[in-house]
Amino acid sequence: MPSIYPPKFRRGDLVRVVAPALSRAVVMEHDNTSHIERRFAEMGLRLSFGEHVDEMDGLHSSSVQSRVDDLHAAFSDPEVAGILTVIGGFSSNELLPYLDWELIAANPKIVCGYSDITALQNAIYARTGLVTYSGPHWSTFGMRDHFEESHTWFVEALFGEAPIDVRPATAWTDDAWFRDQDARTVIPGDGWWPLQRGDASGRIVGGNLCTLNLLQGTVNMPSLEGALLFLEDDFESHPATFARDLASLLQTPEAKGIRGLVIGRFQQASRMTPDLLALIIAKQAALAGLPVLANADFGHTSPIFTFPIGGEAEVSVGESSTLRITRH
What we know:
The chain is of the alpha/beta class. It has helices spanning 24-27, 33-43, 64-76, 101-106, 117-128, 148-159, 209-212, 239-250, 274-282; strands at 14-18, 46-49, 80-85, 110-113, 132-134, 164-166, 171-173, 186-188, 193-196, 198-208, 227-232, 260-265, 292-299, 307-309, 312-317, 322-327. The radius of gyration is 18 Å and the shape is globular.
């Protein structure tokens, strides 16, 4: 299925914020909205919200019907240019049997978020060919400090058309900034980890690994033939967990057609190291001879770059590694 690229943002566009996973009520416990409003105003984007974003049940989400209705309303509204998710969570895959794929395909719009939203994004790509974007949530824009690089990458990917040459961040953070904007710890960057040398280009498939794996065996799993995998996981994914989740993905029949792997930065609590990750990669026959680059700036640390699921990228892993998003 050919990729369908949605129109890019222009100043004055309307963005709809929806909550396909956790409710906005969870986010509103910490008042960071003034930073969000300022940043979107500076980009020239107007914000609107799904009717059900503040509903919350015992799992801090809302009913499947409420979440589906908000997504359908966003795709149906001709004034809405893009859709941003409030935050991640655990339950976006609950929506997949009830989505109107013909409606989504007929109304291509930007969809941006990450983490649990991986299930929704890859399913949209698999069922419609619509390119979506792994990048900041609406709530991520509430980060007062150390947000500049994430913001720049978001603008480059969602307003621009030119190829994006990604560079490793010189510093990063891994803290609960949303609880205390003053208690931040900046960690010096240690660059990318070149685990296996080589060059590759292909369609980007991926996002959060354990969430992507939820799609295996369903019609919502995108093809891995010719794919350049971008994978990450959060603090709950320790090395052994990541290893078996990666093995599961690479044992799918179409994994024989992947062209390379880019791995996002691990959170400190995962206790992943370059040596452990190199050991994990070396065990996977499906990755033999393929380029593997790790410690890239996406996932559950900050900053994160915005990349297109279904878009195209090139990676070169060696003494001086490069990563370029060629079509987004």
